[in-house]
Amino acid sequence: MGSEKKKLTTSWGAPVGDNQNSVTAGSRGPTLIQDVHLLEKLAHFNRERIPERIVHAKGAGAHGYFEVTNDLTKYTKASFLSEVGKQTPLFVRFSTVAGELGSADTVRDPRGFAVKFYTEDGNYDLVGNNTPVFFIRDAIKFPDFIHTQKRDPKTHLKNPTAVWDFWSLSPESLHQVTILMSDRGIPATYRHMHGFGSHTFKWVNAEGEAVWIKYHFKTEQGIKNLDPKVAVQIAGENPDYHIEDLYNSIEKGDYPKWKLYVQIMPLEDANTYRFDPFDVTKVWSQKDYPLIEVGQMVLNRNPENYFAEVEQATFSPGTLVPGIDVSPDKMLQGRLFAYHDAHRYRVGTNHQMLPINRPRTEVNHYQRDGAMRFDQNGGDSVNYEPNSFDGPTETPENKAHQYVVSGVAASVAYDHDDHYTQAGDLYRLLSEAERSRLVANIAAAMEGVSKEEILLRQIQHFYKADPEYGQRVAQALNLPIPE
């Protein structure tokens, strides 16, 4: 008889009933803060390393500005988008995801694409990647996913078995895996890649009318990628290649530029669209919701001090301004907690006061004390609200836009489980040469996987996306083609 399976428990020993789905109000959400297992996982995960970022540890930053080129005030009241020609200062941080501070820039990895807009209504952070989708769609799986991308607890080496075991058991990852293993998995530079908000967000106009939106930053330098062999060579010869390239281009006046576009979806379409528009493993077809130009981002100034500006910069998708709100996207809902919490731990509870993070507008609140409080700490002003001493008060016109929720509070998945159509569509969009490189990259990445059942399970996912896709990967690995 085999040994009895161990029960998964919380840190206080209680058995866990569902480790795949966070507790939400209905299948679409939002996520409920009563899910103490989710909060415990995310809070513990944020405290696993000292002091570098858990993910996106290594990166490069630059200052610049955003200029509005199209009037979209009928969709959003966000002040920095209020008129054509308006410029807003910003700071951008690009990064790799899985490596440590000393890792090489030219590895196959998604790239972080985080933008902090210093608007007159406070800071607005758009914290995305260079891909329009992600590997998972529920934040409860994020600590587990990143563990597979980091170092093995026994060998302290990267572990392809863990990587592909997780992906093969999480079919929602297939779309992002296909992008990662394609030519775009290794950008030539930070300047030669697109950026995406990835999640669905909400825009609200001055009349209180709302739409769902997705952000797309399109590089004006053009897309360029690295051949894997060249990337390996550069990783050995100049592991800081991307940081150096961005710095040098700005120093010589060759300022990188991106055009920002949005896709706009009417609120009611979310209930009928053929994919769940809040599932971050899916894209919206640009035929259904075409790109609409918003403005241009220009990077024109390097940091004076890397630690003070790049390392201490803190971004969170929960750093919002009036006119921009969140959606019920379960991955986004988890990030709203996890990012601010990570910064409180890594940089400190007063991280928003540091010059790189400080808003360019007046800040009035009742938060006091905390480590490294280096201003007047509110002086002798009242530190509670409501009060009778003319302290700052709320502005009801800036309440978050409401939306209807329904259903039973339970750990449930998204209603839609088609993880193959969009990955297959992407595969079929590739040229023959691109498909060959994709398959070769996958086969190379699977070298060292210790269990054949993991390889076969993953090949089945490729096959379901497109039979040719699965057949070619199986042939590259000398494994049987799925029936």
Keywords:
single chain, 483 residues, alpha+beta, Catalase HpII,  Chain A, domain 1, globular
Question: What does this 3D model show about the protein?
Answer:
The chain has about 475 residues and is of the alpha+beta class. The chain has a domain at about 30-150 and about 185-355: Catalase core domain (Catalase HpII,  Chain A, domain 1, Beta Barrel). Helix content is about 25%, strand content about 15%. Strands 2, 3, 4, 5, 6, 7, 8, 9, 10 and 11 form a 10-stranded antiparallel beta sheet that branches. A two-stranded antiparallel ribbon has the order 1-12. The longest helix has 17 residues, at about 330-345. It starts with about 20 loop residues before the first strand and ends in a 7-residue tail after the last helix. The model has no long low-confidence stretch (mean pLDDT about 95). InterPro entries: Catalase (IPR018028), Catalase_3 (IPR040333), Catalase_AS (IPR024708), Catalase_clade1/3 (IPR024711), Catalase_core (IPR011614), Catalase_haem_BS (IPR002226), Catalase_immune_responsive (IPR010582), Catalase_sf (IPR020835). It is an enzyme of class 1 (oxidoreductase). This is Catalase. Its cofactor is heme. Keywords: Heme, Hydrogen peroxide, Iron, Metal-binding, Oxidoreductase, Peroxidase.
